[in-house]
Design a protein that fits this description.
single chain, alpha/beta, Glucose Oxidase, domain 1, 2 domains, eight-stranded mixed beta sheet, four-stranded parallel beta sheet, 16 strands, 14% strand, globular
C-alpha cells in the first residue's frame, strides 16, 4: 500500500531538497563498504591488538575473515534506571552471537546523562551537547574497523539520537538498536504532578514530594511517561531499527531477554558476509525519516525531536525542516493519549495494542510509507504485530489486535483523538518557534498578554515565590539557546506556570530554550530562532510589550511596529555564571560551534 498523496508530496520535496547531499552521502558509504566490513585491511599488529582477549578459535575465525564480528556500543551505567538493565546485555548478545556462528565484542561505551537528575541544575547545560559527544564517542569505538555490524544499547533523551548519528556516520555497517524497556507502572503520573504542584505552593513538604517521586521512578527501566526517552523507542521501531514489537517490553523479563538475543542474531544475519546485507545508511532514507515524523505526531511525542530528527536526518544527507514537520502534523491525526497528553503511561499504551496497533492503523490509512527497508527485511507491514514469548523461549509474533484494548489510550485512525498531530511551527516577527498543542486545551491555545521578561528560569521561579506573577502575562525566558548556555530544558517552569493557569490566569511561555519532553498543558513557544545571543528579536522584547501567541494560526508576534523593533538595542547578555562549574567550561567550544535550533542545534557541519 502506498502512502497518501499529501505524505508522498512532502516526502518528494524532502527528497528533491536533499538530492545532492544524499547522493554524496551514499557515495561515501558505498566507498567505505568496499574498503571495510572485513578485517583483511588491518595489519597483523592491528588485528592482534583487536582480538588479543579472544579465544583461540575466535582468533582463527576473525583472522580468516570467515565469520561476522558484531560491535556492541553501550550506554550502560548503574545510576540511571533506563540504562542499568544494559549491564547484562553484552553477555546475552555474545552468547547469541556464538550460537549463531558469529562473534561479538563491546566496541565501546558512551556517556548517558539523565535530564530528570539534572533538570534545573547546572549540569543540564551539558545535556543537549551530550548528544553530539555520544555520537563522537561511538565513532571512536567503531573506528577500530573490527566489525561487520553494530548493535546500539541506548534508551534516553540524547543517547538514542547520538547513537543514530554515529550509526549513520558508519552507514556502511548494518545497525540494530536494542532497547531496555520501561519500568513497571508506579503511582499515576497525574498524581505525581499534583504533589509537585502542592509542593510549589508550599502545601506539602519535601518529604512528601520525595515519597511521590520515588513511587513514580521506582525501578529499572525508562520513566513511564511519554517524554523524549519513550518517543525515542517509538521512533526506532517505526523507522525499522528495532526488531518488531521490541520497544515497550519491561526489563528483566524472559521476553526482554529473548528479544535481545534475537536482535543480536538479526544483526549478524544482515552483514556484508551474508545474502541480506542491509547497511543502515542505505536503509534509512527520506521515507524512513517521514515515517518517524508521522509516528511522532500520531503519538503526541516529544518536542525535543523537532531538533533531534533534523540532526539525525542530516547525518544521512537528508534535509528535513521544521516546515516539513509542521505540514506533516497538519496531515496526521493524534491516535495516542499518554501522559502528559493523557492519564495513561507507556505500559498502558503497550497493553492497549502498542506499536503494532499504531503502525497497522497508520499503514492502513496511508499515513506511512510501507515500502521501506528495515532491519527485519522489506516493508513496514511486519511491524504491525505483538511480540510474545513462545513455549521454546523464543520470540513469536501475532498480528496486532483489530481493536484497541483501551479506547481512552489508543484510538483507530478512523476516530482519532484529534484530526491533527500535536506539534506546530510558529512564525512572526519574533522568528520561528515550535509549540506542542496536543496537551493544551483549545481555549488555551491563543494568548495575548503583556510580557514579563526573565534571563533564567530561576528568576521566574523567584518572582513566583515573591508573588509577583499576577494577572495575565507571557513569560519571556531568553538567553537559553544553544550558543548561550547549551539550550537546557526549562522543566521547572512547567509546575509554576501550571499553577498560575489553574488559578484562572492566561499565561504562556516564549523562550529560545527547550522544554521537557513532558511539556504539557501550558502553551509554550519554544526553540525560538534566532536565539537572543545571535541577535534574535526575542532579545529586543521589553517588559510590558504585548505578545500574541496563536497556536491555531501558527503565529508569534510582539505587537510593536517593525521600525520600533528594529530601533531597539538588544538586551545585554551576562552569561558569566554559566561559563564554569560542572564541566561547563569543557563545553565552551561546543557552544561556540552550535548551529541553530531549526537546523538541529548540532556542532557538526552541514
Amino acid at each position: 500500500m502506498t502512502a497518501r498523496a499529501d505524505i508522498e508530496a512532502i516526502t518528494n520535496r524532502i527528497r528533491e531538497r536533499s538530492r545532492e547531499s544524499r547522493e554524496a552521502y551514499l557515495g561515501r558509504i558505498a566507498g567505505a563498504a568496499g574498503k571495510t566490513a572485513n578485517r583483511a585491511v588491518l595489519s597483523c599488529g592491528n588485528l592482534a591488538h583487536g582480538f588479543a582477549v579472544c579465544s583461540p578459535a575466535e582468533k582463527i575465525a576473525l583472522g580468516g575473515n570467515r565469520v561476522p564480528n558484531l560491535g556492541i556500543v553501550t550506554s550502560y551505567n548503574d545510576m540511571l534506571s533506563a540504562h542499568q538493565p544494559f549491564e547484562t546485555f553484552p553477555q546475552l548478545i555474545k552468547q547469541a552471537a556464538k550460537e549463531a556462528g558469529g562473534i561479538a565484542q563491546v566496541a565501546g561505551g558512551v556517556p548517558a546523562m539523565c535530564d530528570g537528575v539534572t533538570q534545573g541544575q547546572p549540569g543540564m547545560e551539558l545535556s543537549l551537547f551530550s548528544r553530539d559527544v555520544i555520537a563522537m564517542a561511538a565513532a571512536i569505538g567503531l573506528s577500530h574497523n573490527m566489525f561487520d555490524a553494530a548493535v546500539y544499547l541506548g534508551v534516553c533523551d540524547k543517547i538514542v539520537p547520538g547513537l543514530l548519528i554515529a550509526a549513520l556516520t558508519f552507514g556502511h555497517l548494518p545497525a540494530v538498536f536494542i532497547p531496555a524497556g520501561p519500568m513497571p507502572s508506579g503511582i499515576p503520573n497525574d498524581e505525581k504532578a499534583k504533589v509537585r504542584q502542592l509542593y510549589a505552593e508550599g502545601k506539602v513538604g519535601r518529604a512528601e514530594l520525595l515519597e511521590a517521586e520515588s513511587k513514580s521512578y521506582h525501578g529499572p527501566g525508562t520513566c513511564t511517561f511519554y517524554g523524549t526517552a519513550n518517543s525515542n523507542q517509538m521512533l526506532m521501531e517505526i523507522m525499522g531499527l528495532h526488531t518488531p514489537g521490541a520497544s515497550f517490553v519491561n526489563p528483566n523479563t524472559p521476553l526482554r531477554d529473548a528479544l535481545t538475543r534475537e536482535a543480536a542474531r538479526r544483526a549478524l544475519a544482515i552483514t556484508q558476509l551474508g545474502n541480506a546485507y542491509t547497511p543502515v545508511g542505505a536503509m534509512i532514507d527520506e521515507r524512513s525519516i517521514v515515517n518517524g515524523v508521522v509516528g511522532l505526531h500520531a503519538t503526541g511525542g516529544s518536542t525535543n525531536h523537532t531538533i533531534h530528527l533534523i540532526a539525525m536526518a542530516a547525518a544521512a544527507g537528508i534535509r528535513l525542516t521544521w516546515q516539513d514537520i509542521s505540514e506533516l502534523s497538519d496531515a496526521v491525526p493524534l491516535l495516542a493519549r499518554v501522559y502528559p497528553n493523557g492519564l495513561a503511561d507507556v505500559n498502558h499504551f503497550h497493553a492497549a495494542g502498542g506499536m503494532g496497533f499504531l503502525i497497522r492503523e497508520l499503514l492502513d490509512a496511508g499515513l506511512l510509507h510501507e515500502d521501506v527497508r528495515t532491519v527485519w527485511g522489506e516493508g513496514l507491514r511486519p511491524y504491525a504485530v505483538e511480540a510474545k514469548l513462545g513455549a521454546d523461549g523464543q520470540v513469536v509474533r501475532e498480528a496486532a489486535p483489530r481493536e484497541s484494548g483501551d479506547a481512552k489510550v489508543l484510538a483507530p485512525a478512523a476516530t482519532p483523538f484529534q484530526p491533527t498531530g500535536g506539534l506546530k511551527v510558529l512564525n512572526g516577527n519574533l522568528g520561528h518557534a515550535v509549540i506542542k498543542t496536543s496537551a493544551v486545551k483549545p481555549e488555551r491555545r491563543i494568548v495575548e498578554a503583556p510580557a514579563k521578561v526573565f534571563a533564567s528560569q530561576q528568576a521566574l521561579n523567584d518572582a513566583f515565590k515573591a508573588g509577583e506573577l499576577t494577572g495575565d502575562f507571557v513569560a519571556v525566558v531568553r538567553f537559553q539557546g544553544p550558543k548561550a548556555n547549551g539550550m537546557p530544558e526549562l522543566h521547572k517552569l512547567t509546575t509554576v506556570l501550571g499553577i498560575l493557569q489553574d488559578r484562572g490566569q492566561h499565561v504562556a511561555l516564549v523562550t529560545d530554550g527547550r522544554m521537557s519532553g513532558a511539556s504539557g498543558k501550558v502553551p509554550a513557544a519554544i526553540h525560538v530562532t534566532p536565539e537572543a545571543l545571535e541577535g534574535g528579536a526575542i532579545g529586543r522584547i521589553h517588559e510590558g510589550d504585548v505578545i500574541r501567541l496563536d497556536a491555531e494560526a501558527g503565529s508569534l508576534e510582539v505587537l510593536v511596529t517593525a521600525d520600533e523593533l528594529a530601533r531597539r538595542t538588544p538586551a545585554p547578555a551576562d552569561l558569566s555564571e554559566g561559563e564554569h562549574g560542572f564541566g561547563r567550561e569543557l563545553f565552551a567550544g561546543l557552544r561556540h560551534m552550535a548551529g541553530r535550533a531549526d537546523h538541529g542545534a548540532s556542532v557538526f557541519a552541514g
